[in-house]
Design goal:
single chain; alpha+beta; 3 helices; 21% helix; globular
């Protein structure tokens, strides 16, 4: 049984717990012929004005850039043994303003939610590193499933 809400607060604790514990997410994009491509990455998340907002520090690879230019919709899937899972449907947009990169660098440093992230200095020199690119992830749907009983709760941005 699934319940749907427009209030992210109703599943925020479970979202934060699962994402923080799992950390790694499979990101899905599609090419110009609608063929999916997956890669395992580590986004971070925060709550802004009552809604979830994600950030992905990444390299701007030709495939990822081409896929998102053709279709900015993406999905991030988290899963752990025991079947706790989170699925995030979002729109991804490149946002490489230095102030944004500094903010994202800090979110990864402190882990957001707790446990999600890693030291970006392992891959980039600083927020100003030209190889560091940031994707702003604006979710429109998030599903959290508790593995013990497969209870499903869904947040949708357009629901009140």
């Amino acid at each position: 049984m699934s319940t749907t809400t427009g209030d992210f607060g109703k599943l925020e604790t479970e979202f934060n717990t699962y994402v923080g514990a799992i950390n790694y997410a499979t990101m899905v994009t599609v090419d110009a012929e609608n063929r999916p491509r997956t890669r395992v990455l580590i986004p971070v998340w925060e709550k802004v004005d009552g809604k979830p907002l994600g950030w992905l520090a990444t390299y701007r690879t030709p495939v990822k850039a081409a896929h998102l230019a053709g279709n900015p919709h993406t999905n991030f899937s988290y899963w752990a043994p025991g079947n706790n899972s989170v699925a995030v449907d979002a729109v991804a947009v490149w946002d490489n303003e230095l102030s944004v990169k500094e903010h994202v660098w800090d979110l990864y440093r402190k882990t957001s939610p707790r446990g999600a992230g890693y030291p970006l200095g392992n891959f980039w020199k600083s927020p100003a590193d030209p190889q560091l690119h940031v994707l702003r992830l604006t979710p429109w749907r998030i599903q959290v499933i508790r593995g013990a009983d497969l209870r499903s709760r869904i947040w949708r941005a357009d629901r009140t």
